[in-house]
Amino acid sequence: MIILQSSPKNGFLFKKKKQGSHYSVDAPTEIKERIKQQNGKYLRLLADCLVQDDEMMKATILNWTQQTGKERAESNTDLTEVMRNNALFRRTLWEMVETFCEENQSFVTLKDVFY
Fold first, then answer.
1. Under DSSP, is residue 94 helix (H, G, I), strand (E, B) or coil?
2. Cα dihedral sign for 40, 71, 50, 85?
3. 76-103 per-position pLDDT tens digit
4. Which of 22, 51, 59, 80 is deepest in the core (most CB within 10 A)?
5. For residue 61, what are the CA distances in angstroms to 14, 16, 83?
């Protein structure tokens, strides 16, 4: 499974120091590993949604959002920080999709991804 931690364009997820934040550079290793696992689960969620029916997809999304939302709400991680890091993760994921399409144009193109 691919775990996104960094991107050449976007830097690292854990780059600033903020007391108690899940995304702090000095966050405990256990929390950093949980963030990486949750990011991996997000990738799996996206893949699963391509093959699940609507009800299964909703249950999968609900499970992931409840787990990650609860952890962020119980920590000292403010919403703007969560949103910024989610945006970073999505941009990194999109870079991977673009790179895959560029390297595999005979198989899939960006146009295929949008249609």
1. helix
2. negative
3. 777 888 888 788 878 888 888 888 888 8
4. 22
5. 25, 29, 17
